[in-house]
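Record filed here:
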Amino acid sequence: MKRYLALAAIAAATAATPAFAQQAPCELHIWPAERMTSITTGWLGGGLIEGALNSKKDANNKAQMASALDSPTQLDALQALDLNALLKLPAGTVVVRHETPIERKTMNKVKTRRADSSAACYNELIVADVFYQKAAIYGRSPRTLFLFREFGNDQKIDYEFKAWGGNGLKLFPPKKDEDATAALEELSIVFKKNFEEYAAKVKNTTAS
């Protein structure tokens, strides 16, 4: 009899729990960038000739970026930040990592949830591009393209914002015969700064 009463009490307490408390937490799904690009331009401002002259340098820059900012490193860098606060998401939002990048050519084609999730509160953050540029006038800077999407309790996009974040570099690319460790670490630091710059734009566009 005591056991029956205890079970009845638990059932009553569960029934009395507000519906919102029983819902799954909000989710933020994050994906790394598939594409790395490097473009070096001088006083000529680019073009076929200058592109050919700098092709080896750009290929080397691209390879070093792909190594320093591989998929796990990109996701680790994002998760080291307070994504909920930066993107103004509900407290307790769960971050779900996706190690495999999204194909760049399909980035804007898919208009539904990219992940199989039944969460009523669902968001996506996609790193679209990592782009390094060295220009005679503007110096060295890696720019990062981010895409943030919010969904309701369906497959329809309620809010979407895509923009670049960009900050300067002092150490990358490392010079020949120079220790590359600090230069490659700088890429990860600036990657996070780029996201913070982007997230500030998201806040501005979502402000009421």
